Amino acid sequence: MEILDEGQFHYINKGQEDQLECHGYKRDRIKTSVTVVFAMCTLGLLFLVFYWKPEWFVWAQFKSCELVNADVVLLRTMDEHRTWSKETVKLETGDSMPIHISSLEAGCEDGKDVHQMQEVSNQSSDSSPLTLSDFNRQDSAVIHGESSNCQSDQQSLRYFIHHCLKYMWNAEKKTFEKVRGLDSGIPCSVFYTLGHGLSSTDQANRQTRYGDNAITVKVKPYIKLLFYEVLNPFYVFQLFSVCLWMSDEYYYYAAAIIVMSLLSIGTQLYTIRKQSEMLHQMVESHNTMRVKVCRSGEDWEEVVSTNLVPGDVLVIPPNGMLMPCDAVLITGNCILNESMLTGESVPVTKTQLPSQSSEVYSPEEHKHHTLFCGTQVIQTRYYGGEKVKAVVVRTGFSTAKGELVRSILFPKPLNFKLLTAAYRFVLVLVGIAMIGFTFTVVWMALDGESVGEIFLEALDLITICVPPALPSALTIGIIYAQRRLKKQDIFSISPERINICGLVDLVCFDKTGTLTEDGLDLWAVVPTKNDSFVPAIQDLSMLPLGPLLTAMATSHSLTVIGGKLSGDPLDLKMFEATKWELEEPGSEESTKFDMLVPTVVRPPHSMVLLHHSPNEREYPYEVGIIRQFTFSSSLQRMSVITRTLGSQNMVVYTKGAPETISQLCRPETIPLDFYEVLMTYTERGFRVIAFAWRPLEDKVKFLHTQRMSRHEIETDLTFLGLMVMQNALKPETTPIIHQLNGANISTVMITGDNILTAVSVARECKMVCPGQQIVEVTALAPADSTPAAITYKVSTKHIEPEEIKGADVDENDKRDQFTFAMSGKSFAVIKKYFPHVLPKLAVGGTVFARMSPDQKTQLIEVYQDLGYYVAMCGDGANDCGALKRAHAGISLSELEASVASPFTSKRATIECVLTLIREGRCALVTSFGVFKFMALYSMIQFMSVLILYGVFANLGDIQYLYHDLVIITTIAFVMSRNSAYPKLVQQRPPTSLLRPPILFSMVVQIAIQLAFQLGAFYFLLSQSWFVPWEDYRLCNDGSMNSTINTTDINTTMASTLKPCTVNYDSESDEGVLTYETTTMFGVATFQYVITAFVFSKGKPFRQPVHTNWLYVLDLIILTALNVWLLLYPTQPVAYFVELAQFPDFTFRLYLLAGAVANFVISWLTEVLLADNNALWKWLTVSYHQHHKKKYQVLQEELLYDKDYGLPVGAMLSQGTGKEINPDDGHSGDTCIQIDDSTYL
């Protein structure tokens, strides 16, 4: 395509995952007229090509132009696929828009620039803070064009819709931009100025911009689905083949293909329709519901949810609701079931957005204040009589659920080498077919055949060389694998990824709930006294009433649902261990706390009385939770503000990761042996939680607490102590990790837990092997004049002296002596300041702790960029992004979040990883075998037909039918039934059809089959009784050369061909009932069975062939049929199949012996040469040296790394180390302490 200047194309969604290149085009009448003429000349086939290639459609009928004048836009993705799509630019003007003109005119009278909306939108996309007036102006300005004139005839709205998202014209930037809600560039404090709601005019204006609030999944009628399915290139080629066969009177196989295609299409349509209906039902429940909104601070108005727009104020009823949009809470609390998004069935508490925060709102950063579309609000908590209100921030497909639905409707194409290589090989087959086509045309033209006959026979060669059944045959193995996975409780929404699972060479695991048990048991509490730790208390009844016990009873987000305490499992275990009681007063109850509080906790049984003074009343010891700052995985902590009944002041309690809590506490309150005690427990695999507290000043009242920011609350804390939780490994974990290690599949832990706990679990499950040292990588961001730096600390903890081999370590095993561990904080610094180091640390790393959900996804992307095929296994809680990004995401959650993961296991153990890799390898090898078989089938039939064309003979319809339907179809259907081999081996299946062993196998097998076909043909020519069909043909049509004795020929052939009874006026019979045809038919029938057996692999990826009893039975039956047809066909059968009767029975035996020799040579060639891994490793050593993946190169560099970090190929003595400075990217001279301390 020609290079366009800036006005003709622009990048939209720049810097984002869905970045697109946008080109503008305007219709050209001359080009359109020429295209229509060509389409008519091709009987509409040109438009079929345009359907497959939308960019060709645009280039053929439109000319490039500036985007502002574009009638259509061409969009191209910026990923490796570079996919084109076409969208029509829509223009709404004047009366077509439901806009209130008075509002617009008022805007003009005030002298407002009509492009302020675009200006505001630009600010929003750049995440610059907006004011309320800025946001209000955008609705009245959106409908105007480039001119600032406010005349009604200038009102216009230019936009296009791509993948269900609306892109509007931005006159300031002169490009199209995605329509955004209030999720970008809005300070948190602004939402409280929107609390009075929108006016009807503002709502109407915004609805013009945003459209209806609906996630519409249309269920297409069967006739429309059929139309789209039939236009698939595969079915178009089948239709061409069927028409060709019908014209050649090859009715039987044509009818069989029609039946098979109809069954295939019918099944496909049913599946697509069923999925559409399920998706439709999933979103329709919240598309049309009645909700209450506020209109300009007046009375609450009930509207249909489709009319909601960003800025509307929604009332959440006390008994809950299904959220129809994304909204941010501005009053009250809500308890939600977010299983649709997170996979967690545990209810979560959402609190109101900080009112005084100048921080810019983000749905991800403020997810604990955001109610997401599709989630179920179970109940609400509110203060006094105030309603629970939320401001709508996103609607329709822009919501979190809309994004999920869009990812299902428009999945990313898979870049799978098998498919790419298969397409290339099909092109090779097409090239071979064209050679045969040319030969046939020339040869038959020289013989004087009619033009119609020539092209009929020549085109037939194309359908022979490129079999229409090839795509169906390739999917059969995947279908069988999917059925086997289902029997093992593994379900897939992306069956095409099963083959990719066979290539997995790295598996990432979440820790809690994946490698370890879901439940945590409270093992002990370690309080502090006088700023020092006291001995651990394992019986909590011995823990005195005080701040630590109160912190454990209040620092949670538990709630009572249906009379049962619900919430995070860790919080449940902690609260149950205190044996306190939890009460949630309702709105009808009187309160002892001067305000209605969501939750009250109290000690069990007896009440503890507080005596403030003799004149004051006594209060039972009850603690009310005034406000919650819910747990944030990025902050790694949660806090609550409480008030004890009768107390004059409020208290803050904070719970979280010990490292995080220690930074929020006053240094003098932290015990001096804090890290030593912490390591004592974390190194043993315990999960440790820290507590801190701070009494607030007396002047801090209830309303003040509702406005305080989290930063104000979580500061100057006093350290209280540690809670030690025991999290045992699942019994299946260690054996599975051992098998993966034995198969040379790398394993990595990506967890949000403490790095010391993660390392301990990694050692316990043998993810870190005995004898390996842990190298902790710590990265520090630049501060003042100090540049960013990376330090390393090596530990020999848990390594017995005899395990350390030092200088005696084998060269090939050196890298196994070290492995990296780092935290999410260091990961972020390295990613920003040391991007050249990150790939090596990823390759050499095993433990990545304190990783946020986004960082998990980023690490997966790093591994994929290095050439790994990555599997990710998690419980779905914070792993959704990583599960979607990985080549094989495996969710252990059965809830709706599994929609985001390609695979879901009902069994919550990592056994599914082994099963999936085994089945993936089995399906992959099966696909290769089926493809090779189909390719050989095509070439065998192509070669035999080409030989027959050389003597002006051909196979008969029944013979074609026997080959295509009886032999090929049955083999293709049962060949893929072999189950996966139970043991995972180190050997990897091939990744491409273009690998040398596979190419060698196919080329040599083709040569062997051709050699035996030619051998049989020339052996036939050497027989004394043989009379060539060409001579007989010439004799019967009167053009016999005078040197041939026709009487002798007729006499010789009389007993076999019976020329007087054959009707040569019928072209279908001509050249079929011949010695040549019968010979080539007999040889080919055996070759199909031979290649099927040879290409059906067993160990090490599939069960042996004999375990597939149906396949073995099919081969036995087909072999028996072939022998029977060759040696003893009865007269009716020979007549039906159109077989010539050989006068010499010995010749038949020779053909049978040739078939046996063919089998032996083909099988030995495949076993001794094509499948000889040692031989190919030796032959391709040079190839592998020059075609290594990035991670393989880095693995070798890590043996002795001199430039980018620790030289992990050598044992380090105490006091040596490395530091990296980002200025030069090389190791500096500063010595960083590397010792044998017990830090890790």
Task: Please render the helix and strand layout as text.
Layout (H helix, E strand, L loop, with lengths): L8 E4 L7 E8 L1 H13 L3 H8 L1 H8 E3 L7 E6 L6 E5 L1 E4 L7 H9 L6 H10 L6 H10 L14 E7 L2 E6 L4 E4 L11 H4 L6 H11 L11 H9 L2 H15 L3 H34 L5 E5 L5 E5 L8 E4 L4 E2 L3 E4 L3 E5 L1 H4 L5 E3 L19 E2 L4 E6 L6 E7 L5 H10 L7 H30 L4 H15 L4 H18 L2 E3 L5 H4 L4 E4 L11 E9 L2 E2 L13 H8 L4 E3 L2 E3 L2 H10 L2 E3 L15 E4 L6 E2 L8 E2 L2 E10 L4 E8 L6 E6 L1 H7 L9 H9 L4 E9 L6 H6 L2 H4 L4 E9 L6 H10 L3 E5 L4 H10 L8 E8 L8 E7 L22 E6 H10 L4 H7 E5 L3 H13 L4 E5 L5 H6 L2 E4 L11 E3 L5 H40 L6 H18 L21 H26 L7 H8 L9 H8 L21 H20 L14 H19 L3 H7 L7 H26 ...
Parallel strand pairs: 21-35, 21-40, 35-39, 36-38, 38-39, 40-41, 41-42
Antiparallel strand pairs: 1-2, 2-3, 2-4, 4-5, 6-7, 7-8, 8-9, 10-11, 10-12, 12-19, 13-18, 14-17, 14-19, 15-16, 15-18, 20-42, 22-23, 22-34, 24-25, 26-27, 27-30, 28-29, 30-31, 31-32, 32-33, 33-34, 36-37
Helix pairs in contact: 2-3, 5-6, 9-11, 10-11, 10-15, 11-31, 14-15, 14-30, 16-30, 30-32, 30-35, 31-35, 31-36, 32-35, 32-38, 35-36, 35-38
Subcellular location: Early endosome membrane; Late endosome membrane; Membrane; Recycling endosome membrane
Pfam families: Cation_ATPase, Cation_ATPase_N, E1-E2_ATPase, P5-ATPase
Family: Belongs to the cation transport ATPase (P-type) (TC 3.A.3) family. Type V subfamily.
**Could you state the oligomeric state of the chains shown?**
single chain
Low-confidence stretches: 1-7, 98-129, 137-154, 587-595, 798-815, 1037-1069, 1202-1240
Cα(first) to Cα(last) distance is 58 Å
Counted beta strands: 42
Mean pLDDT: 76
The biggest beta sheet reads: 10 strands, mixed
Please tell me how large the radius of gyration is.
37 Å
Strand content: 15-25%
What is the topology, as strand order, of the major beta sheet? 20-42-41-40-21-35-39-38-36-37
Count of DSSP H/I helices: 41
Helix content bin: 40-55%
How does the overall form come out from the CA principal axes? globular
| Helix vs. strand class | alpha+beta
